[in-house]
Design goal:
Layout: H1 2-7, E1 14-17, H2 32-60, E2 63-68, H3 84-102, E3 107-112, E4 117-118, H4 121-125, H5 128-132, E5 140-141, H6 142-154, E6 159-160, H7 164-175, H8 178-189
Parallel strand pairs: 1-2, 2-3, 3-6, 4-5
Length: about 200
């Protein structure tokens, strides 16, 4: 992808890492090839693309990187979606580290941490029927989340949680004792753990 950009004589001024999916089954119940594809998509590709564009951005003294993380990045692990919280936590910590390293060079790095967003995500992982049965009060549109993420990046904000309801939840996830949070997350996430 980066070679194709360079071959056209173009440079990357903004990178948005938004490729992703989740696996609702247990870790060993899913073929390793699928778990590996998950890591390649959510972790390796995002880090590789950032690595490929940062040098040029730093030379030009400007550039933006937005990585779509998730509220799950603040949560402890639970059954099903085994690698998802870890991958999203890495997206947050990676963005914080890049900000620490490249802010002085003019780069703006943001980890965008949405909660439930109205997309095809649940349909792709087989949990759409469960989402359809959930209250829609706190769902956000993709357009609203994108707007919040872009504006936050322009202001130099590193970790962004769109929506007051998600901000309150993030405070609980980050600052309550982990055994309490783990118990609540496991109870809530158990309905989204599917087995083939």
């Amino acid at each position: 992808m980066l070679a194709a950009v360079a071959a056209r004589g173009r440079v990357v001024d903004a990178l948005v890492n938004n490729a992703g999916f989740s696996i609702a089954q247990s870790f060993a119940g899913t073929p390793w090839a699928r778990q590996r594809d998950f890591l390649m998509t959510l972790v390796v590709s995002a880090c590789g693309l950032a690595h490929g564009v940062i040098g040029g951005m730093a030379e030009r003294g400007e550039g933006s990187i937005i990585t779509v993380a998730s509220m799950a990045g603040f949560a402890p692990g639970a059954a099903g979606h085994t690698l998802y919280p870890g991958a999203k936590s890495l997206a947050i910590k990676f963005s914080q580290a890049l900000d620490a390293e490249y802010r002085a060079a003019g780069l703006k790095v943001t980890a965008l941490c949405p909660g439930f967003v109205q997309t095809e995500f649940a349909s792709a992982n087989g949990t759409q029927h469960l989402i359809d049965d959930s209250p829609r009060l706190f769902f956000q549109t993709a357009e609203a989340v994108v707007d919040i993420g872009i504006r936050a990046n322009e202001r130099g904000k590193v970790v962004v949680v769109p929506g007051w309801h998600n901000q309150v939840a993030a405070i609980f996830l980050r600052y309550l004792p982990e055994p309490w949070v783990s118990m609540a997350v496991r109870a809530g996430s158990s309905r989204y753990h599917l087995e083939p």
